[in-house]
Amino acid sequence: MSAEVRELVRTYLPEFPIQYCKSLVTDTTQFMSIDYGHVIELGDVHYMVYKNEAERRFGLEDPKYWVKRCHELETGKRKILKLEFFETFPVQVGKFRVECYRSPDKESRILDIVRGDSRFMQGITIKDAAGRNVRVLEIVNGRRLDLTVDRIDVEHDVYFREHLPGLLRRYLEAVRAIGMLHRHGERHGDIRRDHLYVEHGTGNLCWIDFDYTFHSYEHPFGLDLFGLGNILVFLVGKANITVQSLEGMGLAERLEGRLSSDDLSIVIPNRIVNLRKIYPYVPEALNRVLMHFSNSAEVFYTTTDELLADLEPCVEALESEYGRKPE
Description:
Elements: H1 3-12, E1 24-25, E2 39-42, E3 45-57, E4 60-72, E5 78-82, E6 88-93, E7 96-102, H2 104-113, E8 123-127, E9 133-138, E10 142-144, H3 145-150, H4 156-162, H5 164-183, E11 196-199, E12 205-207, E13 212-215, H6 222-237, H7 252-255, H8 284-291, H9 304-322
């Protein structure tokens, strides 16, 4: 146990069990060895580590050992520290192969661009004693978009009339936020429904996690656009509806022989994009927007402005028919 850590804890966090205090960390290179009870020193500020963050997908937790949930000792605030970590992997989108990689410096650039913009998570970058990039992030006071939608316990037709118009109105602003990044020459890089939070109190949407980026010279913002499409399909369907899930929904018999590969996502092969075949009350204009992300699409959206130009009239039509309700 470090005497320096013990003294810091006694001063700033006296309720912390002293027996769990570990050493003071100034070089975060070996992030796998930094865990509960360590204190990370960045400049003149100290962060008590509580746990590693984890991504929760498909009912499983995937630990992110380079992301630490912390207590900022001098202020008492909760913070997230993202430590320097690199990885590279390919993504196949239809016939396009995209090289993705993690870039801490790119996330730092975006944090600078979006400072003060509530549509994005907020944070600063501090170098540790070894010159490693550490992003000190504010915790978003909200809930993931997908979990928020899951908690709307009504049938799809009621959801479509009473909840979807408000959600789509907020989604439009989230798309505009990504467009702002693109105008700065940056990409979000990892657009998913669990990287978009619904802020408590306001209901506004807030993007998190900007450290992925990708090389795609033919479609420089394509992966972001496909990510936006995946979220849109999820919102309209109130779920990700797959060929396999139709039976559980009681729709397999009705749709037998009516679905083809043209109705499926170009990104996720078993996901149904042609939602009008499942829910006939989905307007044709809105369904045409969804079909830009299907295997049958001959033209893809290449900018957020193109997506907004098609989608905004659809949202206005829903609001006109069902009323504009706060969500």
